[in-house]
Structures are given as structure tokens and as C-alpha cells.
Amino acid sequence: MGFTTLMPLFAALGFGVGLSAFYTLRLATRNPDVTWRRSTNPEPWEEFRTAQYKFMNTANHDYSKSPAPKF
Amino acid sequence: MLVQGKFSRVNELTRPNFFRLLWSSFSVGFADLSSSHSHTMSEVQQLSTAPFDPRFPNQNQTRHCYSSYVDYHRCIRKKGEDYPACEYFRKAYRSLCPNSWIEKWNDQMEAGTFPGKI
């Protein structure tokens, strides 16, 4: 069973599958709309009231103040 | 030939040039805009929409719309109709939500069948 000639295929496939898996897991854990236990975390987007979701703050937005008032 | 030439010159004097006609029509239009309609040009309505909310950073703003609607009614129920903070939520859901959804939810609220927790 010589798979040596197939190694480039496995490398490319592994990279693709790895990237997809990484992104899916990132979405599952970091997305503001996803909650794993609705009983303990009913509104998961509230964690982002003062947090930044994007990678880089290119618009110089002030994340310490939220526009939605609390009542 | 001479008579025709003389008449053609007179016509040229009296018949307006095409480009002069065009320019005069434009200048009449500008005069209208500047003199009598200046108040409508300067009174541009201040339009605004819901500001960026970091809780809903992505393109899909459905949850932003629904949260604003629910928060508005919770605010009304808790603080009364004229509380100024509730106005923020009202403007947000009016800007973000499709009008058919707003009508449907308003009908459900009146009938008491709205599924959200208010």
C-alpha cells in the first residue's frame, strides 16, 4: 500500500478540511447569535454590548459605549 | 438673391440661436430654483437610521430588528409610553424591520398572541 504519491492530495485536502473545521468551530463558539444552553444563556448577543467582534477596528468605533439604552 | 440674402440676415437677427434658447431655458430654471424655491432646497429633512450596534455586527440584522421591537414593548410596559429611552428602540425597529413584519406583530400584540416575552 504505497500512498506516497497521494501525499500532495492529502495535504491539500487536509488543509481545506482543517480550515472548514476551524471556521465552523469558531462560529459555534464565538458567533454572537449562537448559544449552547438556552436556559443559562438566553440572549448570547448581549456579551457583545461593549465587545468587538471584527478582527480589526478600522472605523475607530468606540466599543466602550453601547448605543442601546438600558431600562 | 440679394433680397433673399437681406431677409436671411434679418431672420438671423430675430430668430433666436438654438444655443441661446437652450441656455435661456436653463437659466430660467435656475432662477426658479434660486428665488422662489430656496426654502425647500435649504430645508433638507434630517434623515437617520439605527446606529451601529456591536451586539449585531454582521450583515443579517434580523435579530437586531426583533430585539428592538421586543425591547421597545418591554420598555413601554416597564416605564410607560413617554419614557425617552424607549424612543431609541422605536426608531430602531421602525428603520430595520420590514413593514409587513411590524404590521403582523402589531396585530399579534393586539390579539394577545405575540410569541415573544414582553
Automatic annotation (TrEMBL), chain A:
| A Pfam family | B12D
- TM segments? 6-28
Keyword line: Membrane, Transmembrane, Transmembrane helix
- For this entry, the protein name equals Cytochrome c oxidase subunit NDUFA4
- Quote the gene name from the UniProt entry: Ndufa4
From TrEMBL, chain B:
Among the entry's GO cellular component annotations, what is one? Answer: respiratory chain complex IV
Q: Does the keyword Mitochondrion apply?
A: yes
Q: Which Pfam families match?
A: COX6B
| Domain of life per record | Eukaryota
The secretion signal range is: none
Q: Where in the cell is it found?
A: Mitochondrion
Which PROSITE patterns does this entry report, sorted A to Z? Answer: CHCH
List the coiled-coil residues.
Answer: none
Source organism (scientific name): Amphibalanus amphitrite
Q: What is this protein called?
A: Cytochrome c oxidase subunit 6B1
Matching CDD domains, A to Z? Cyt_c_Oxidase_VIb
Q: Which UniProt keywords apply?
A: Disulfide bond, Mitochondrion
> Where does the protein principally reside?
mitochondrion
